[in-house]
Amino acid sequence: MNVWEARWLRAFHLLYHACLALGLILSLGEPSGPGPAALGILAVMAAWHWFFVVRRPHLLGRPNPMAFHLVVICGLYAALVMTDRSFDVVIFGLMPQPYLMLAGPWSYVGAVATVLTTFVARGHLDKPDAIWQLAGSSGLVLAIGLFVNYLTRQSEQNRAVGVLEERARLAREIHDTIAQGLSGIITQLEAAEQAMPELAAVQKRITLAKELARDNLQEARRSVDALRPRPLADARLDAALAEVAERWSRTSGTTATVAVEGTPRPLAGEVAAALLRAAQEGLSNVAKHASADRVAITLTYMEDEVTLDVYDDGNGFDPAVPRAGYGLAAMRERAGTVGGTLTVESAPGEGTALCLRIPSV
């Protein structure tokens, strides 16, 4: 049970007892006031509901014993109204109870039984049109129950979709930050191991590895908190891309350049993050697979869209051949979240061109 369900449950329990109190107030306003029998039934109704329903939320929805408790409460209500008509108002607190205490088809059976109880208590079954009134009232109560259950199912589905989307977001963030960072750290440490006789080279590689570790620790914390990527926290997208490219060039030994075409304009946070992550993933793939001599990143602002192109002159590959890894799939998922598309053009020995297009809003 989530927080909102618990609040609604408390609200309907409070409504039930408030209606009992209101009925007592109305009865006290009558010249004769409530009799001992009415007071006794009222006390039993309140105590029974409190002890067997409110205090036992883990049993809600189970026909055994909640169906029995609903029958008892409805019987007490009928006796109370036949004793003192001032307590008619209690029906407003009683009607939601079948949907709280029972689940599935049993809740509808309980609702119809509750409506029937009100007719018995008020003596309406003797009227000529009682069957039509009973059918109409039951139909209305069932329609309300069906609508509430529909909203509940939709809420549960939306909550499940939200959980899946959050898992996918974390998977993308982990891949785009922690996984890439660890890969870079391993590369630097392997290079340091190979340069072991040269102390200056070893120190340089270790320094770069420590810098990568610090940066990725910050990114991991920001990802968990769903914050903007660190390079975007205090800079525009073009400056953030330049920072990423400069750092990548230092750690990989391959030159990466950044060019901006068109007139820069402010972008939504999730759009800028998607473009930056695409550049980071493109650079990571180049470092791992391409053996490229240069990489060119181009950010283009057009009237109806923003595009990011990452081109390298490396080995290339056949896009039609399935590849292991989560990189391109994560990029396509991230692009889809902002209404964008990702295309990859490559061929063995001819380099790779990656293009992310995001329409302007």
From TrEMBL:
Listed A to Z, the keywords are: 4Fe-4S, Cytoplasm, Iron, Iron-sulfur, Kinase, Membrane, Metal-binding, Transferase, Transmembrane, Transmembrane helix, Two-component regulatory system
Known EC number: 2.7.13.3
Q: Which cofactor does it need?
A: [4Fe-4S] cluster
Recorded hits in InterPro entries, A to Z, give: HATPase_C_sf, HATPase_dom, His_kinase_dom, Sensor_HK_TwoCompSys, Sig_transdc_His_kin-like_C, Sig_transdc_His_kin_sub3_dim/P, Sig_transdc_His_kinase_ChrS
Mention any one GO cellular component term assigned to this protein in its UniProt record.
membrane
**EC top class, in one word?**
transferase
* Classification via Pfam families: HATPase_c, HisKA_3
CDD domains, A to Z? HATPase_UhpB-NarQ-NarX-like
Localization, UniProt: Cytoplasm
Mind telling me which SMART domains this protein's record contains? HATPase_c
For this protein, the parts annotated as crossing the membrane are: 12-29, 35-54, 66-83, 103-121, 130-151
Q: Domain Histidine kinase: where?
A: 275-361
* GO MF: 4 iron, 4 sulfur cluster binding; metal ion binding; phosphorelay sensor kinase activity; protein dimerization activity
Function of the protein: Member of the two-component regulatory system NreB/NreC involved in the control of dissimilatory nitrate/nitrite reduction in response to oxygen. NreB functions as a direct oxygen sensor histidine kinase which is autophosphorylated, in the absence of oxygen, probably at the conserved histidine residue, and transfers its phosphate group probably to a conserved aspartate residue of NreC. NreB/NreC activates the expression of the nitrate (narGHJI) and nitrite (nir) reductase operons, as well as the putative nitrate transporter gene narT.
Q: What is this protein called?
A: Oxygen sensor histidine kinase NreB
**Organism this protein belongs to:** Nonomuraea jiangxiensis
